[in-house]
Amino acid sequence: MIDLPIGSTFELIVEWLQNNLEPFFDAISNILTFIISGFENIFLFPPSIVIIIILSLLAWKLSDRRIAIFTFIGLGLIVGMELWEETMQTLALVIVSALVALLIGVPLGIWASRNNVVDRILRPILDFMQTMPAFVYLIPAVLFFKMGKVPGAVATVIFATPPVVRLTNLGIRQVPTDVIEAAKSFGSTSRQMLFKVQLPMALPTILAGVNQTIMLSLSMVVIAAMIGAKGLGEKVLTGITQLEIGLGFESGVSVVILAMILDRITQALGKTAE
Hints:
- The chain is about 85% helix and about 0% strand.
- By secondary structure, the protein is mainly α.
- The protein has a single domain, classed as MetI-like fold, CATH 1.10.3720.
- The protein is globular.
- The mean pLDDT is about 85.
């Protein structure tokens, strides 16, 4: 059998990147630390009831009264379990990771929808990213960014980006041909076609990708606790390793509540766009 040194080659690549791009990784680390800490301060500075009311009103505005009531009761339950700080740390990490994933994913999806070569190149890369076990992403993240919330955010971005790329690409490609032809007949430029026809019509599909990206971010943030990311994942991990069943259960319930709130709000955004 031929011995393919794939693992050792990967190690050499990682070592080269560590030796030659350390300032670049330090800059990314500093920026992400600043943004994540900023969100944490915003969520944790006011009393918890203020944030609960704001999020409940947001849920009412974007979704409906039932989701607002669920948001109020659910977040109140988290406060009662004394997991408010950890929940807000997790929410901050999810928001930052999802925003970075969207900033990368949406332009890539647009590019892939307008260029078949890019689409063919991206497809196997996205397959690779989605099928690779989530724990594997923690390895390069730790090597480049050490331990803490930054490698957790980086691993989360890698894990959560593929859905929004795929669904942005799909949404634009599904815009009916007769609509495209009609826009061309009125003299639309390529830029006008994209921003005034394709993106508005693809918005429900793109928002479905946003929903998936946020949900994957939340699931990965919990796993990222293994490399020092604070938040609910850390409590879940403590519950597992120290057999604190009650703490593990309460942390799991808090993750479910947060996931349901984020899911219902982002789903409501998609329905509004339809």
